[in-house]
Amino acid sequence: MIALDTNVLVRLLTRDDEKQANKARALLEKHADEDAAFFVSDIVLAELVWTLERSYDYDRSAIAQVLKALADNATLGFESREVLRAAQQLFSDAKTGFADCLIVAKAQAAGCSSLVSFDKAMRALPTVEQL
Q: Where are the domains of the chain?
């Protein structure tokens, strides 16, 4: 398994640097027939969403589609594909940032009955309690 950094995914998605995008695509194509050949960490996912929002002006809908496509890609492995799917769904349904959605999805997957926070934006997410 090979871990991917955020910038590799950004190049693949935005093709803002054609030379790097081609290198990234060639790497993924080389391993296209291998399940979970590449590891994408939760931190990379959070950075990816932040970068697409802030630097490339992707809207929530486009980002949700990117996350779904990543989760559906068998060549990519994740800390938890189901947590990614849950976070993507929360992100699609709420106006909360993806990192917060990922935090809630990870807490739910860990069996937590609730998540306490001072963050008022998170109160729209299930199981979040304001402290």
A: 2-94
40 by DSSP, 3-state: which? Answer: strand
Using N-to-C axis directions, what is the helix angle for 60-72 and 81-93, rounded to 10°? 160
Q: What are the DSSP calls for 4-56, one per residue? A: --HHHHHHHHH-SSHHHHHHHHHHHHHTTTSTT-EEE-HHHHHHHHHHHHHTT
Query: Is residue 29's pLDDT more than 90?
Result: yes
pLDDT at 124 over 90: no
pLDDT, tens digit, 9 for 90 and up, residues 48-64:
999 999 999 999 999 99
Report yes or no: 70 and 62 within 8 Å, Cβ to Cβ.
no
29 SS3 class: helix
